Amino acid sequence: MNNYKVYHMSHTDLDGYGCQMVTNRYFDNIKFYNSNYGREINERFDEIFSDINNENNEKILYS
């Protein structure tokens, strides 16, 4: 699955970071985002979508 750019958002807790470690094991082209609860989640989604819109890659895997 190395042809995809992966955008991965997790919580700022141990299971969130654990998910990132596992995901990082299987994907090469990946960008991680972390968020607490509440309004910060929407802010992080805005950041992800902005990054996607600025990307020139046609194959994007949302996670």
Description:
- The chain has helices spanning 14-26, 39-53, and strands spanning 5-11, 30-35, 60-62.
- With 63 residues, it is of the alpha/beta class.
- It has one domain (5-62).
- Strands 2-1-3 form a three-stranded parallel beta sheet, sandwiched between helices.
- Strand 1 (5-11), helix 1 (14-26) and strand 2 (30-35) form a beta-alpha-beta unit.
- The longest helix has 15 residues, at 39-53.
- The model has no long low-confidence stretch (mean pLDDT 86).
Features:
alpha/beta; 3 strands; 63 residues; flat; three-stranded parallel beta sheet; single chain
Overall mean pLDDT score? 86
Shape: flat
- Tell me the structural class: alpha/beta
User: Strand order within the widest sheet?
Assistant: 2-1-3
Q: How much β-strand is present in the residues?
A: 25-35%
List the domain count as a whole number.
1
Which stretches of 5+ consecutive residues score pLDDT under 50? Answer: none
Report the biggest beta sheet as strand number plus sense, adding barrel if it closes.
Answer: 3 strands, parallel
Q: Tell me the number of helical segments per DSSP (H or I, 4 or more residues long).
A: 2
- Please write the string of helix (H) and strand (E) elements: EHEHE
The proportion of residues forming helix, as a percent range, comes to 40-55%
Q: How many strand units?
A: 3
- What separation lies between the terminal Cα atoms? 13 Å
Rg, Å, rounded:
12 Å
